[in-house]
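Hi R.,

Here's the chain you asked about this morning:
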Amino acid sequence: MGTTLTDSRRAFLKKNIIVVVLVVLFFGFGIATSNVFSTGNPMDIFRTSTFFKASNLVNLTTQMAINAMLSAGLTYVIILGGIDISVGSVAALAGVVAMLVAKQFPNAPVPVTVVLLILSALAVGLLCGAFNGLMITKFKVVPMIATLAMLNIARGLSFIASGGGAVSGISSQYSWLGGARFLVTEDKPTGWIPVITIFVVLCVFLVHTLLSKTVFGRHVYATGSNPTVAHLAGINTARVIFLSHVLCAVMAAMGGMLNASKLTNGQPGACDGYEMFAIAATVLGGTSLAGGRGSVGRAMFGVAIIAIINNGMNLMHINSYWQKVVIGVIILLAVVLDMVQNKKKN
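And here is the predicted structure, written out as tokens:
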């Protein structure tokens, strides 16, 4: 009986290790940024911790937003056994295009600005995703090479379209989607609940539902597990791969648009290296690089871990270069863990 209980606990811990790590980091940075060691009172953690301040926790959700969008779309591609390293560049291009469109309609009301921004990002995402999908399915280009090409193409187009500098001088109403907040109080006249957080939650929920509750989602898993068997079972694997890359690019473009709206300008160099954050978050969340296994919902745990690490290290005034080192180590550990799990299954 005791052995069975121990085994069940071990199995539970192994299955939910990402949640355990998240909780440890959350309270770890809370303690590290408090005065509990000087006062000796454990309850001072919540009173003195800068990490646990309500404003910081709200800001943490906005810091997660862009990576959440990129990771949610990337989950589909990695489940298929592929990779998309162009998501950061696609995000930058979408941000530049969205702000160029915004400059053409400076007096548009807020509802119209939201539609314009979303349509701009959607157009960029569809075009970039279709390019990646066609290269991979029609011309049989390796996903790494196809998306490497798109990484350079999209980044180059960002600089060309923007003239090499930021697209600025945007009307303030275009910042509503990325910078406005609801629930205004006396303590917080700018509002507590960020619009960008609500938008991201809705997008991630829709993408998660598509993967976990629909026929298309089942086809993604089947194709990622064994494309040959999936094809023999009647699944149009080329179509699944194509649409997954389109969805990945659209989510990346939406993330880039949100970033540009938040900053009220389009930076051609924006989101540089964000593909690494997205890959790290997705793999940390349990999505197998070998394909066939993963979840958008669990990828969000990985997104939260990376956001907490960056936020906590900033509050502790740790050099930003060390943050890159930490993220690099996390990526390596996540990949090694994934390889070990796949080896055990085989």
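One quick note: The mean pLDDT is 91.

Cheers,
M.
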